[in-house]
Design goal:
Helices cover 54% and strands 14% of the residues. It is rod-shaped. Helix 4 packs antiparallel against helix 5, helix 8 runs antiparallel to helix 9 (227-244) and helix 8 (180-214) runs parallel beside helix 12. It has a seven-stranded mixed beta sheet with strand order 2-1-3-7-6-5-4, sandwiched between helices. The chain has helices at 2-5, 7-11, 56-66, 79-89, 93-101, 163-170, 173-176, 180-214, 227-244, 248-256, 264-267, 270-330, 345-366; strands at 36-43, 46-47, 69-75, 107-111, 114-124, 137-146, 150-156. The longest helix is centred in the last third of the chain and has 61 residues, at 270-330. It is of the alpha+beta class.
């Protein structure tokens, strides 16, 4: 079908860094909830036009009366704001608690006649130069409730706006006619594509740090870099890993296990999302291992540099020890000492001292200590 053939193009944005959330400016109407950023009814793949703002309970009544499905988007609702929606749509209390409190691991759970899915959104933070306190990635959350005739998104964090995605889906009625599972796939694909873009940007940061660690200085030796920068980047990669790794299993379940709430034609496309999650997971694991190696190399270079400095200090101390010893001997002021009254005693001792110092210097330089 043409709908399936064009599904990826319809829901997949270009891979660029996410912008700041623009959101929807909604005017609260009678019974409206302040956390609701958009509420709409879709019938036959098209958005049903409304005279004014639509309350979630009214959207549900229209769906139950005339068919279609309701898509409700919320941003950081509190318990009181979400309680009415949860009661109207029959959402499970455990899922409601997770959606309100946030800070959940990516997961997929089934409660009665609905699916509860948690996604971690990742946004790359642009910076001129990586420092010891640079934030590389910023995380948010998108929780999705998928039912037979409704789809509810609960978003936490300043990133991860679904506004552009909703508009793209509304331009493809053949896709929206498949119901809430089509929206679930579109959101999953949108978020995972964001992972791919962030992974490319993090790769650039790691390449920059790696170049600095192994770039030679004026003496031709690797100069290294601040270990704090590497450690900070490693922490950001670890945060990225916590968002990606747990998501692989839910995407595999959606692509492999038949589910009543997921259209069979849509289900096969979750396999593509699972493949992309696996790819990003491999990249993030590789980032972590590479940063470990870079950190160890940087510490090893620091140790080598310290050893080289100690060898130079020791070499000069050995050279200075010769005139120090000679001066110490002839500074004892005894009356009977060799060459004390000899006319050429002073230049002879001075020449011998300089000769010994030059010999030691040549030997140490030949051995690479100077």
């Amino acid at each position: 079908m043409s709908m399936i053939r064009d599904l990826r193009a319809a829901v997949r944005p270009s891979r660029v860094s996410a912008r700041k959330d623009e959101g929807f400016e909604t005017v609260p109407g009678p019974g409206a909830v302040s956390a609701v950023v958009d509420c709409a009814v879709y019938r036959d793949g098209r958005r049903v036009r409304q005279a004014g703002p639509l309350a979630p309970e009214e959207a549900l009544r229209q769906v139950r009366r005339d068919g279609g499905f309701a898509w409700i988007g919320l941003h950081e609702p509190d318990e009181g704001e979400f309680a009415g929606i949860a009661r109207e749509f029959g959402l499970h209390p455990l899922a409601v608690e997770d959606a309100v409190r946030a800070h959940q691991r990516p997961k997929l759970e089934r409660y009665d006649d609905s699916l509860f899915t948690v996604f971690k959104t990742i946004h790359y933070l642009d910076h001129d130069k990586l420092s010891t306190n640079s934030e590389v990635v910023e995380t948010g959350e998108v929780m999705c409730f998928t039912g037979r005739d409704f789809f509810i998104t609960v978003r936490h964090g300043g990133q991860g706006s679904l506004r552009a995605l909703r508009h793209r889906l509304q331009d493809d009625p053949e896709l929206l006619v498949k119901g809430p599972s089509a929206v679930l796939h579109a959101i999953a694909d949108h978020i995972v594509d964001g992972y791919l873009a962030v992974a490319d940007a993090v790769q650039d940061d790691i390449d920059e740090v790696e170049t600095e660690v192994f770039s030679p200085d004026r003496r031709g030796t690797p100069r290294g870099t601040d270990a704090g920068r590497i450690y900070q980047l490693k922490r950001e990669v670890l945060e990225f890993k916590r968002a990606v790794a747990p998501l692989l299993r839910p995407m595999q379940l959606l692509s492999e296990r038949p589910m009543l709430l997921v259209d069979p034609e849509i289900q096969k496309y979750f396999r593509d999302v699972a493949d992309h999650v696996a790819r990003v997971q491999e990249q993030v694991i590789g980032f972590d291992e590479l940063l470990n190696s870079i950190l160890q190399a940087n510490l090893a270079q620091a140790s080598v540099a310290q050893n080289e400095d100690m060898r130079k200090i020791t070499s000069w101390a050995a050279i200075i020890a010769v005139p120090t010893m000679v001066c110490g001997v002839y500074g004892m002021n005894f009356e009977h000492m060799p060459e004390v009254e000899w006319r050429y005693g002073y230049p002879l001792v001075l020449g011998i001292t300089v000769g010994i110092c030059l010999g030691i210097h040549r030997m140490l330089k030949r051995n690479g200590w100077l």
